[in-house]
Specification:
The chain has 260 residues and is of the alpha/beta class. It has a single domain, classed as Rossmann fold (3-Layer(aba) Sandwich). The chain contains eleven helices and nine strands. Strands 2-1-3-4-8-9 form a six-stranded parallel β-sheet. The chain has a three-stranded antiparallel β-sheet with strand order 5-6-7, with no helix packed on it. The longest helix is centred in the first third of the chain and has 17 residues. The protein starts with a strand and ends with a helix. This is Alpha/beta-hydrolase. GO terms for molecular function: hydrolase activity. Keywords: Hydrolase.
């Protein structure tokens, strides 16, 4: 039986290479895996030109990549981190393997894997899930004149996002962050992909950015809407385990891939 293909959807302010510590070892095991560059995240050189991309633009990109693989007859696993959970959930309409089979097509999305994500209900945005939590306010986010967010207080943000790392390492990561569009956090979910596609969750117990309570609420939401249990794996890490404990993320993704 052939291995499923894996699309990794980064979090906000993230470049695809931030996940090389996870993607490269999984690719070395024979999996077709790639990390996307969310359109809502800027480039290394600065924000993208033109109107700031939305969450819906991110979702359309994910859908296009998933459909391309599905049309090749591939089973597809979508893996998302943080903000990425919202466009990933939005992207799946008409692309589940079950939906495609009903249309006489091969391939399709077989699993949604959430790594400490923002997962809204229909009609709620990623920003609405956060709801102005006290830890979120410590990120020191500002919005520039073109609608792109950035972290004004690098040390403060690092203490939240990379709480497992020494201060100097966390701050070095934060300085690599591109800007991210403000509008993407306000776009409301219109399609609950988790309703019909089985879900897995990597629960980061020490996450200060998306706290345990927020993660539990998301898991409960998915289970209520889908009527299915979420396959939860818990690890003792901060919001970005790929920075300090990539092996735990690798093991989780491989377990998800082997379970479909």
């Amino acid at each position: 039986m052939s291995k499923p293909s894996i699309i990794f959807v980064p979090g906000s302010f993230a470049l695809p290479e931030f996940y090389d510590t996870v993607v490269d070892p999984i690719a070395a095991k024979g999996y077709d895996i790639r990390a996307l560059h969310n359109l809502s995240s800027g480039l290394k050189t600065g924000p993208r030109e033109g109107t700031p991309p939305t969450m819906y633009d991110d979702a359309a990109q994910i859908a296009a990549e998933a459909e391309k693989l599905a049309d090749e007859g591939k089973d597809v696993i979508l893996v998302a981190h943080s903000y990425g959970g919202t466009p990933m959930t939005e992207s799946t309409k008409g692309l589940s393997k079950k939906e495609r089979q009903a249309q006489g097509k091969k391939g399709g999305i077989v699993k949604l894997a959430y790594m400490t994500c923002l997962v809204p209900a229909v009609g709620v945005s990623a920003g609405g899930v956060l709801g102005g939590s006290s830890e979120d306010s410590k990120l020191g986010l500002k919005i520039d004149e073109k609608g792109w967010m950035y972290h004004e207080d690098i040390p403060g943000a690092a203490r939240v996002v990379f709480s497992d790392l020494p201060a100097s390492e966390g701050e070095a990561w934060m300085r690599r962050f591109p800007r991210h569009t403000a509008v993407s956090f306000g776009n409301e979910l219109t399609h609950a992909g988790y309703k019909d596609i089985p879900s897995a969750w990597l629960f980061c117990e020490k996450d200060l950015c998306i706290p345990a309570t927020t993660q539990r609420e998301a898991i409960a939401l998915i289970e209520k809407v889908s009527g299915q249990k979420v396959d939860v794996t818990s690890i003792e890490t901060d919001h970005c385990p790929q920075a300090r404990r990539p092996e735990l993320v690798i093991d989780w993704i491989l377990d998800v891939a082997e379970s479909v």
